Amino acid sequence: MGIADQINAIQEELSRLGVKLIAVSKTRSVEEILEAYHAGQRVFGENIVQELVAKHDELPKDIEWHLIGHLQSNKVKYIASFINMIHSVDSLKLLKEIDKHGKKHERIIDCLLQIHIASEDTKFGLDHIELIELLRSEEFPRLQHVRIRGLMGIATNTDNQRVVKEEFCELKSLFDGIKASFFKDTPYFDTLSMGMSADYKIAIEQGSTMVRLGSTIFGNR
Ligand SMILES: *Cc1c(COP(=O)(O)O)cnc(C)c1O
C-alpha cells in the first residue's frame, strides 16, 4: 500500500475509536510528507529540532507540528513561534524555558509531560516522584504560557506484549490519578500520547488518545 492508502486506512480505524493520529515524518522527504498531506493528513511529528524547522519552512502552513523527541532548553527558541505540541517535556527547567519563549511570541504552548515507563534506561522521561515534584513546585502555577495537555510515554522495545501492556496500563493509571489530583477543573488535560507502529493497538486498548505512527504509514526507515 502507498502512503495515501495507509493514511486513509489508519485514519478510518482511528477516527472510529476517537484516537488522534500523529504521522511521524522524521527522516522522510518533503515529497513523502506531501503525499500524506494530500491524502488529508495535517498532523505531523518530528524528533529533531533542526529537521522540524526545515520542514516547517518548506511545507504548507496549515500543518500542525508536534515535537516528539528530546528537546534541549537552548533549542526551544527555534520552534516556539509555530510548534503545536511538545510531547517530550521532562523537566521544570525545560518547561520554564518553553514558557519564556511562549511569552515572547504571545502564545500558550501545549505540552505533554513525558513519563519514563520503559525498562530500558536510555529513554528520557520523568519518574512518578519527579512528576509530582514538578506539579507541586512553586514555580509551576506561575507559568502562564504553557498548558499541560497530558502525558506521553514510550514502552519498552520488546516482542513481549504483556510487558508493553503493563507499561501502558501503568501510564493510564498515572494519567487518571494526576488528572484527578492536579487537573480536576481543567478539561484541556485530555491527552495521553502512547503507542507507536509496533504497539499502538495495545496502547489504544489501554486508553491512549493519541498515537505516533511512522513506519506504519511511510514504510520502514
Ligand atoms: C520514531 C518515533 C515514533 C514512530 O515510530 P514508528 O515505529 O516508526 O511508528 C513514535 N514516537 C517517537 C517518540 C519516535 O521517536
Automatic annotation (TrEMBL):
<dbReference type="Pfam" id="PF01168">
    <property type="entry name" value="Ala_racemase_N"/>
</dbReference>
<dbReference type="InterPro" id="IPR001608">
    <property type="entry name" value="Ala_racemase_N"/>
</dbReference>
<keyword id="KW-0663">Pyridoxal phosphate</keyword>
<dbReference type="InterPro" id="IPR029066">
    <property type="entry name" value="PLP-binding_barrel"/>
</dbReference>
<protein>
    <recommendedName>
        <fullName>Pyridoxal phosphate homeostasis protein</fullName>
    </recommendedName>
</protein>
<comment type="similarity">
    <text>Belongs to the pyridoxal phosphate-binding protein YggS/PROSC family.</text>
</comment>
<feature type="modified residue" description="N6-(pyridoxal phosphate)lysine">
    <location>
        <position position="26"/>
    </location>
</feature>
<dbReference type="InterPro" id="IPR011078">
    <property type="entry name" value="PyrdxlP_homeostasis"/>
</dbReference>
<comment type="function">
    <text>Pyridoxal 5'-phosphate (PLP)-binding protein, which is involved in PLP homeostasis.</text>
</comment>
<feature type="domain" description="Alanine racemase N-terminal">
    <location>
        <begin position="3"/>
        <end position="220"/>
    </location>
</feature>
